[in-house]
């Protein structure tokens, strides 16, 4: 398993990209000749390169400067670019989101960091009404090239007000683009793409992924590397069932696929990358090939990303389904604090395995057995 | 999590960076002999733009005040005569006092209001005031009349069902026109919604106003917005946005960008008394002060936020006193006095641009009209109060008296102007009404810079449906 090398073609570049399958990362000592990079460093390098390339790009948020970033994602940037381009803001999400939007109205390219997207709710009017809708409502006179980024979803033991996933909320709003990286090269390529994008973007990172290391090729490390917004990536090709996921859940899905392959189920795992625009084409093409669908997300189930994917399949590929679609999502409760409860409130690898088996008509009980 | 603890450190640092500005010192009093506490802070202010070394100096100062906490807080006065007891606190030295004192919740005297002409249009003071030329005065007066007539005609049009909604600026013509006249054309305006006079001053035509209100295909907003949500890039007037006070932090952001561009312009944003209750007001002003952004905040305190009178809105002495809380220079002006508003904004703008600082202007006026066409204000306020402000304190008639007294205006000119403007408006409305609506392409454009694939698909699907059922599709909407 660990020796599998996959050929991946990045959407922008035509040359093929040698990569080691991500589930091999568990073998730290594996020598493939490829460099490794943490997601944190990937984001940091993307910010650094884009700020260097375009003097209009600047970063603002709580703790991004002197503290080097609440999660150290902006490490070294204040020193390198000075306080005019790395701004420590007072504690007002509504305030600095509004100010960022104003700066974008004028023509700068702000990157607004939320300490966690849970706090973005205090600024959500500016994200939706001031940023997302402005280009449309001003008939193209006011464009808002702003990026809102920060950790999204659950961390570990931070309870309900620090653990919600906002992919579905922001993903439903026209005018916004919403992205969620998983691997280090996703993080690098997508962050660079969104900083260059003229539309307002919500960039959903994940706190637990910041320290995770992934192999990166020299192409990824090049400063011109950039991924395309709106294109999902097939992390693992398969034939029997399609599993869609984004952010941390991609890792879970890949582990589940590994377990399943031992039982003769060859799952195809799609790393969504882009919540809005959703790559319906890739997802539908995959389901038309495999005829079965399992959607995985950390967020709440009702009106979630999985719900939209299921609707898309029903609308476009109904006749290709051989089994009802399965949705795995976070439990329909505010996130509890106690570790055992938190574990039960989040999708685990076993949940994905069970759901996939159900989709393949293997008999499996529905309820989780912790 | 450790997240919350980390915040206070950054704020302490933030304040520490400004230590030098207030003439306060670190532990070592020798170090800051060049910064005496007798020099007014404003003159010693260094912006980070002009002083690249500030970064290093601020880093050095960062932890000093935190350490200073333990030692005895005495310091020699500059003339070495006596000891001043005080606290070396982040942000500046604070003198001690043995007397327990509370700042009063309201001052003994309200902040006075700057005024140049009295209710009869006579200059009140022997102090000269900045004269305006005949050309400017007549232009201001004509635009005020135009605004009045425009409001009347569009309001009537709404009542006739020809447009769906309208908001008048009755009673606030002076604030609108005089403030606009005091600005430069490249100053960027972020309005609330009761400032169409600013656009009018800058050259927006009556036809353009009508087109937006009718949402036809000539509307610069492509029919996307409710009436009165004007916007024009060419006139540096940002599109009106309905949520209250969101333009305030946005203005600070635009001003910050202007400053980065080293532009010699400022940003001006308007809001009402009600808008000052929003969190955005606090954040916007606070930030603008910290970022030293060149923005003029103009509050139209017109006494009412729909049906909420200002006594229910805040308990402070109006809005002018709030500026000081943020470290912002503020002033209060008679909003119905054209010359006073003109002078105030002219000076405020100058300060903002040359000193890179925000200014707060509170213009006192009265909202003579209803909040909008969806409101009947006689339901919550006495009719004679409205009448009083409409007749006795009318800004247009007041300025007219002054202009006529100078020999620059006459009854004939008045009659002609009002007649012409009214005719132009009626004409503009007729044209706007007959103009086609925006084509269906405009339903799908501008959501993003370039249309997303699903929108392109949907447009194709819509066109197909229209083709198939063309008899059900309205004829006055172009495809």
Automatic annotation (TrEMBL), chain A:
Q: What is its EC number?
A: 1.2.4.1
Catalytic activities? N(6)-[(R)-lipoyl]-L-lysyl-[protein] + pyruvate + H(+) = N(6)-[(R)-S(8)-acetyldihydrolipoyl]-L-lysyl-[protein] + CO2
Metal-binding as a keyword of this entry, yes or no, is: yes
A single GO BP: pyruvate decarboxylation to acetyl-CoA
**Localization terms from the record:** Mitochondrion matrix
- Needed co-factor(s): thiamine diphosphate
Quaternary structure?
A: Tetramer of 2 alpha and 2 beta subunits.
Q: Which GO terms describe its cellular component?
A: mitochondrial matrix
Under the GO molecular function aspect, what terms does this record hold? metal ion binding; pyruvate dehydrogenase (acetyl-transferring) activity
On whether Metal-binding is a keyword of this UniProt record, the answer is yes
Q: What does this protein do?
A: The pyruvate dehydrogenase complex catalyzes the overall conversion of pyruvate to acetyl-CoA and CO(2). It contains multiple copies of three enzymatic components: pyruvate dehydrogenase (E1), dihydrolipoamide acetyltransferase (E2) and lipoamide dehydrogenase (E3). The pyruvate dehydrogenase complex catalyzes the overall conversion of pyruvate to acetyl-CoA and CO2.
Native organism? Dillenia turbinata
Q: Return the protein name.
A: Pyruvate dehydrogenase E1 component subunit beta
Q: Which UniProt keywords apply?
A: Metal-binding, Mitochondrion, Oxidoreductase, Potassium, Pyruvate, Thiamine pyrophosphate, Transit peptide
UniProtKB/TrEMBL annotation, chain B:
Can you cite an annotated GO cellular component? mitochondrial matrix
| Bias type Basic and acidic residues, positions | 460-471
E.C. numbers? 1.2.4.4
Keyword Oxidoreductase present in the record's keywords: the answer is yes
Its subcellular locations are:
Mitochondrion matrix
What does the similarity note say? Belongs to the BCKDHA family.
Assembly with partners or alone: Heterotetramer of alpha and beta chains.
Protein name in UniProt: 3-methyl-2-oxobutanoate dehydrogenase (2-methylpropanoyl-transferring)
Organismal lineage: Eukaryota, Viridiplantae, Streptophyta, Embryophyta, Tracheophyta
């Amino acid at each position: 398993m660990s020796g599998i090398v996959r050929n991946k073609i990045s959407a922008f570049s035509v040359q093929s990209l040698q990569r080691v399958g991500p589930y091999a990362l568990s073998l730290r000592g594996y020598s493939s000749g490829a460099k490794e990079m943490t997601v944190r460093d990937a984001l940091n390098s993307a910010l650094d390169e884009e700020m260097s390339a375009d003097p209009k790009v600047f970063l603002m948020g709580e703790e991004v400067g002197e503290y080097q970033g609440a999660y150290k994602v902006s490490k070294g940037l204040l020193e390198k670019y000075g306080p005019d381009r790395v701004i420590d803001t007072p504690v007002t999400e509504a305030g600095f989101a509004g100010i960022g939007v104003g700066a974008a109205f004028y023509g700068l390219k702000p990157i607004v960091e939320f300490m966690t997207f849970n706090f973005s709710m205090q600024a959500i009017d500016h994200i939706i009404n001031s940023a997302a809708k402005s280009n449309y409502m001003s008939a193209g006179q006011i464009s808002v090239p702003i990026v809102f980024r920060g950790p999204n979803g659950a961390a570990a033991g931070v309870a309900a007000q620090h653990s919600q996933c906002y992919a579905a909320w922001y993903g439903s709003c026209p005018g916004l683009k919403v992205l969620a990286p998983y691997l280090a090269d996703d993080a690098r390529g997508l962050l660079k793409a969104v900083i260059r994008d003229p539309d307002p973007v919500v960039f959903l990172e994940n706190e637990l992924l910041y320290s995770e290391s992934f192999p990166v090729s020299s192409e990824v490390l090049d400063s011109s590397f950039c991924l395309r917004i709106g294109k999902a990536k097939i992390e693992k090709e398969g034939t029997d069932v399609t599993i869609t996921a984004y952010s941390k859940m991609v890792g879970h899905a890949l582990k589940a696929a590994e377990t399943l392959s031992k039982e003769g189920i060859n799952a195809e795992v799609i790393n969504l990358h882009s919540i809005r625009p959703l790559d319906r084409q890739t997802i539908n093409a995959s389901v038309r090939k495999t005829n079965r669908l399992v959607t995985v997300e950390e967020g709440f189930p009702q009106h979630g990303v999985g719900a939209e994917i299921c609707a898309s399949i029903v609308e476009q590929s109904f006749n290709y389904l051989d089994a009802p679609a399965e949705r795995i999502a976070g439990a329909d409760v505010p996130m509890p604090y106690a570790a055992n409860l938190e574990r039960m409130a989040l999708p685990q690898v076993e949940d994905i395995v069970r759901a996939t088996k159900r989709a393949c008509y293997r008999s499996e009980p529905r309820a989780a057995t912790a | 999590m450790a997240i919350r603890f980390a915040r206070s450190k950054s704020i302490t640092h933030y304040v520490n960076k400004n230590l030098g500005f207030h003439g306060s010192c670190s532990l070592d009093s020798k170090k800051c002999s060049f910064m005496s506490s007798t020099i007014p802070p404003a003159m010693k202010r260094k912006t980070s733009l002009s002083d690249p070394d500030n970064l290093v100096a601020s880093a050095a100062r960062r932890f000093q005040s935190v350490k200073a906490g333990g030692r005895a807080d005495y310091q020699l006065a500059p003339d070495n005569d006596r000891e001043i007891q005080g606290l070396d606190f982040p942000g500046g030295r604070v003198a001690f006092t043995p007397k327990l004192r509370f700042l009063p919740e309201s001052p003994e005297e309200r902040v006075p209001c700057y005024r140049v002409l009295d209710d009869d249009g006579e200059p009140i003071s022997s102090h000269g005031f900045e004269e305006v030329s005949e050309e400017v005065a007549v232009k201001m007066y004509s635009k005020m009349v135009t605004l009045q007539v425009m409001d009347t005609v569009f309001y009537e049009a709404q009542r006739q069902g020809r447009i769906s909604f309208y908001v008048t600026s009755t009673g606030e013509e002076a604030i609108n026109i005089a403030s606009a006249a005091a600005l430069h054309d490249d100053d960027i305006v972020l309005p609330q919604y009761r400032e169409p006079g600013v656009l009018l001053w800058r050259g927006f035509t009556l036809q353009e106003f009508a087109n937006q209100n009718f949402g036809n295909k000539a509307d610069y907003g492509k029919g996307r917005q409710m009436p009165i949500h004007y916007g024009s890039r060419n006139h540096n007037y940002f599109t009106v946005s309905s949520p209250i006070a969101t333009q305030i932090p946005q203005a600070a952001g635009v001003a910050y960008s202007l400053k980065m561009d080293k532009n010699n312009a400022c940003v001006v944003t308007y809001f009402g008394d009600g808008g000052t209750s929003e969190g955005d007001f606090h954040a916007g002003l606070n930030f603008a002060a910290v970022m030293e952004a060149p923005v003029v905040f103009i509050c139209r305190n017109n006494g009412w936020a729909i049906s909420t009178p200002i006594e229910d809105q805040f308990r402070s002495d109006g809005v002018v006193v709030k500026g000081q809380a943020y470290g912002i220079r503020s002033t209060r002006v008679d909003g119905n006095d054209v010359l006073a508003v003109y002078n105030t904004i002219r000076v405020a703008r100058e300060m903002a641009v040359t000193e890179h600082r925000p200014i707060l202007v509170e213009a006192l006026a009265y909202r003579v009209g209803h909040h909008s066409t969806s409101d009947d204000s006689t339901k919550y306020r006495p009719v004679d109060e409205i009448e009083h402000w409409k007749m006795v304190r009318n800004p247009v008639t007041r300025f007219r008296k002054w202009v006529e007294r100078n020999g620059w205006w006459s009854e004939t000119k008045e009659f002609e102007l009002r007649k012409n403007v009214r005719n132009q408006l009626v004409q503009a409305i007729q044209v706007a009404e007959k103009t086609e609506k925006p084509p269906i392409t405009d339903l799908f454009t501008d959501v993003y810079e370039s249309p997303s694939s699903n929108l392109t698909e949907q447009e194709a699907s819509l066109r197909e449906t229209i083709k198939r059922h063309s008899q059900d599709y309205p004829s006055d909407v172009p495809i």
